Amino acid sequence: MQYLCLIYQDESIVQNRSKAELDALYAEYRDFTERIKKSGRLVGLNRLQPIRTAATVRVRDGNVVATDGPFAETKEQLGGYYLIEARDLNEAIQTAAGCPSARFGSVEVRPIWEMQPAVDSALHQTTTR
Amino acid sequence: MERERQDTPAEAAVRDTIDALYRDESRRVLATLIRLLGDFDRAEEALADAFRAALEQWPRDGVPGNPRAWLVSTGRFKALDALRRQKRVQPLPDDIHERLASDDGDPASFDGEAFGDDRLRLIFTCCHPALAPEAQVALTLREVCGLTTEEIARAFLVPAPTLAQRIVRAKAKIKSAGIPYEVPGRADLPERLEAVLRVVYLVFNEGYSASSGAAVTRHDLSGEAIRLGRLLIELLPEAEAIGLLALMLLHESRRAARSTADGELILLDEQDRSMWSREQIAEGSALAQRALASSGFGPYTVQAAIAAVHANAAVPAATDWARIVALYDILLSAERSPVVELNRAVAVAMCDGPAAGLALIDAIISTGELDHYHLAHAAHADLCRRLGRKAEAKASYERALALAQQEPERRFLKRRLAELKKI
Q: What does the angle CA B44 – CA B46 – CA B49 come to, to the nearest 5 degrees?
């Protein structure tokens, strides 16, 4: 099974760290990534730019409306993700617990919806019709 | 995982070997790694790493002579490696150095007698009384049987995150409360074994008769419980462990006959006995005999002996009801229980006639202890019906119906009520 681990943390905490602190955090992240890569669990990962760079898009009555930033004010923001392969939810939780940000932010673990081939093709038909 | 190129047939064969090893041996390897590493999570990590290493190395180097010992040894080295890396970032708990310092690298030292003990250690730890009962069940199914969190959640009809949380909490408690990884000593063994058997039987019953909902049987769980029961008597052939396995096999032998294709319940005396599994009856009866003959048998063994009497009657009329009454007397002499008394009363009714049984049931019901137990009212109704006391039968069936939770049982009671009106 694949699980998406979404990393939420208070951006300002990270931004207010000293260079030495940040270097230590990045070293931890490199180590964590290396570890899950070695264990064969890593499928993909990305770090996201801060939320000031984000735009939110909605289409209402056929009109495209784009606004700045995420739609809600929250204390923690999505900062990046790891897509991992795990035997079950508990293995995924255990892997996510190794993420450095889990200690000061939170990591949401979401199972990937595994599409049945029939569903896939049905979706394909509706989107290409 | 995507593979970049096609496997050669030899490589594919090695992969099949590794898949089979994972199925058959991964729980044993895990049990030993927990002992060596002193931590469930670290051991699971090491287990995954060991199998990953096998997938990389065996197609190239061939399957080692003792794959299980290779996996334990490799898992342990991988854990050591991970700890060294981790040490650069975070301080480690003190005891882990000691644990890993004794570095005898000989894989053969990880095999033999100790393996069986490790599996028992794992079972007793997962069923430790300091853990909540539902946590014991979840942990046993995941760690001992190797089911995934999602599979267990589906079987028990709970959301996967709820079950995952139960497992996370249970493991945290094992660590924080310092629940030891050991087989209890002689003095504690009977009590601790009882806890283990309770977990096994709970899993079986969850599969055999779901406590609510439309399905009468959830086969996979019963199969898992029987597998656990077999493992247990292989490791620890105590009378009650043997008795429990016998009981489960004898119940299981009737599975095909106990409901219709559309899920209606069929009572014991109306079942097509040619559909009973002779093989499971033979094995269950022999085990029940063996348990009865050893010292220290208890309620599971006696219940198995009762089930064996039913199982060995070719037709309902051939049932040795006198023996069943005698076996219920043994059960009651160990511990008084209104439910057992009720079952004994039903056996007496079969032996000495409905009037004798009804007198006993009236006495049990008058104590009020079984007021909310639908089967007490159903049994009362049944004996009244057989005695032609229709009004009382109707009242008791209605009371039973109001209390029954499971759909097929409710439909059965409704059928009985409808039949009463026809007469």
A: 110
Mean model confidence pLDDT for chain B:
88
The first and second tokens of residue B186, run together, are 């002689």
Q: CA-nearest residue of chain A to B143? A: A90
Query: Which residues, listed in sequence order, are joined to residue A78 by a DSSP beta bridge?
Result: A8
Q: What number does CATH give the domain A2-50+79-127?
A: 3.30.70.1060
pTM for the predicted model, two decimal places: 0.80
> What is residue A116's predicted lDDT score, i.e. its pLDDT?
63
Strands annotated E in chain A: 2-9, 42-47, 55-60, 63-68, 77-85, 106-111
Out of B52, B86, B167, name the one closest to residue A90 (CB): B167
Separation of alpha carbons A26 and B156, rounded Å: 42
Q: What ranges do the domains of chain A cover?
A: 2-50+79-127
Query: Could you say which of A31, A35, A90 has the minimum Cβ distance to residue B164?
Result: A90
Q: Is there a contact between B350 and B319 (Cβ–Cβ < 8 Å)? A: yes
Distance of CA B363 to the CA centre of its chain: 34
B62 min Cα distance to partner chain A (Å)? 21
For chain A, the 3-state helix, strand and coil shares in percent, each to the nearest 5, are 40, 30, 30
Whether A117 has a pLDDT exceeding 80, the answer reads no
Q: What is the pLDDT of residues B366-380, one digit of tens each?
A: 998 898 899 999 999
pLDDT band with cut points at 50, 70 and 90 for residue B267: confident
Q: For residues A48 and B67, give the distance between their C-alpha atoms in angstroms, rounded to a whole number.
A: 43
Q: Do A90 and B88 touch (CB under 8 A)?
A: no
Contact between B45 and A39 using a beta-carbon 8 Å cutoff = yes
Q: Which residue has the higher pLDDT, B269 or B72?
A: B72
Q: Where on the phi/psi map is residue B388: left (φ > 0), alpha (ψ -120 to 50), or beta?
A: left
Per-residue confidence band for A128, with pLDDT thresholds at 50, 70 and 90: very low
Distance CA B203, CA B211 (A): 12
Maximum Cα–Cα distance across chain A: 55
Mind listing the pLDDT tens digit for each residue in B116-168?
Answer: 689 999 999 999 999 999 999 999 999 999 889 998 888 888 899 999 999 99
CA–CA distance, B347 with B339 (Å, rounded to integer): 13
Q: What is the ipTM of this complex?
A: 0.78
Mutate to test the interface with B, among A28, A89, A99 (most CBs of B within 10 A): A89
Give the per-residue pLDDT at B249.
97
Contacts of B160 in chain A (CB under 8 A): 89, 111
Written as one letter, the residue type at B111 is D
Q: Which positions in chain A touch B161 (Cβ < 8 Å)?
A: 89
State the DSSP code for B188: T
Q: How far apart are CA B176 and CA B170, in angstroms?
A: 10
Contact B127, B195 (CB under 8 A): yes
Q: What average pLDDT does range B78-97 have in this prediction?
A: 70
